[in-house]
Amino acid sequence: MDVLKVETLDDTMLIAARTVVSEVPCPECGLLSTRVHSRYRRTVWDLATGGRPVKVELEVRRFFCGEPSCDREIFAEQVGGLTQRRARRTNALRALLTSIAIALAGRAGARMAGLVGVPVSRSTLLRILRALPDPEIGQVTVLGVDDFAKKRGNSYGTVLVDMDTHRPIDLLDGRTADDLATWLKDHPGVQVICRDRAGSYADGAREGAPDATQVADRFHLWQNLATALEKTIRAHRSCLQEVSGQDAPIKDDIGSGTEPVQRPKTLDSYGNERPMVARTHERYAQVQELRAKSLSLNAISRELGLAFPAPSASTPTPPAQTNSWPRPSLAPASWMSSSPTSPAGGTRAAATPSSSIPRSRLRDSPAAAGPSKAGSSHCADTRKYSKSHVHRPNPAASPAGS
Questions:
Q1: How far is it, in rounded angstroms, from Cα 1 to Cα 5?
Q2: How confident is the model at residue 351 (pLDDT cuts 50, 70, 90)?
Q3: In the beta sheet, which residues pair with residue 12?
Q4: What is the DSSP track for 58-121?
Q5: How far is residue 109's CA from residue 122's CA, in Å, rounded to a whole number?
Q6: Which helix H or strand E contains 364, and what residues bound it?
Q7: What's the whole-model pTM score?
Q8: Distance between CA 353 and CA 390 in Å, rounded?
């Protein structure tokens, strides 16, 4: 390969080169060919130099294959250690990006690649990861089996872990007994199966590896113990008595009493500070200290900046309280109707039961608003009602009795 020129373009180093080999073997049949079909220019990226990306513009040739039985009639030449078929990066650059993708994956890997002079996107690194072949599953003696949620409540799968290396080795699409049994039959030699308490995994382990020993892993043992303890405490909640007053001192084996270890009230159950609770306790202590000095509430509020809010214009003013309230009448005077003269000569009003008068009309009546200037005759008329709601004539008020 001849290098034609090397130049710097902005932040990129450009290298122009071409191949000069006279004969190239066919990648399909291996027959050497010297017949050139055409030439074309391809671009590949190489490792950075001095912190700058290196771009290689390589002129390569296409050759005819002279073997009649070969399926490939035309092929392009490759430069060993530099190019591959349909590759836009050199082997060295691809190995570097693969290592970065395995260690840091997407976004973090893209930032690291930019620092070493190879700017790529996170999607490129993820594609490189997905293109890697799956590692071979060797002999597994202790197998860990557990499920995982692909979509919680809808779809689940199974993860298989080599407990000797603590690395996942395979993923199953489901979590049924048939899936696990099929995998165990394809990979014999499992001696111990560490699983959770699911019945499907138990059936699959018995079917796929009947000679293997099934054990429960430590996580699920603690989880099952915590669940059983919680159910027991809830079932016997009524048997627990609340501790009244101060906590009793803890006595050691010798019998001496020690003060109980109490968690500050400003900390939560995880030991984290609760700012709002701490401020409330501090403000309460300040109020109590000033209250002990015989200060009034207004003085305490001014001292601590807790002044009561002034009433706004929209705040309704409460009605003034009086010692006596006017007695509402049952009916207005206009509703009183005169009747024919009684035998005693008095005027008798029509008997109107109070139950027939609507309450809304009683509230809206002028008599309910209290006495007025003409309230003397009005009150005299309203007093004519007795407990039986029947008018009784007043001889002193009637003209005939005067």
A1: 12
A2: very low
A3: 9
A4: EEEEEEE---TT-S-SEEE---TTT--TT-SB-HHHHHHHHHHHHHHTTHHHHHHHHHTT----
A5: 7
A6: helix 359-364
A7: 0.45
A8: 7
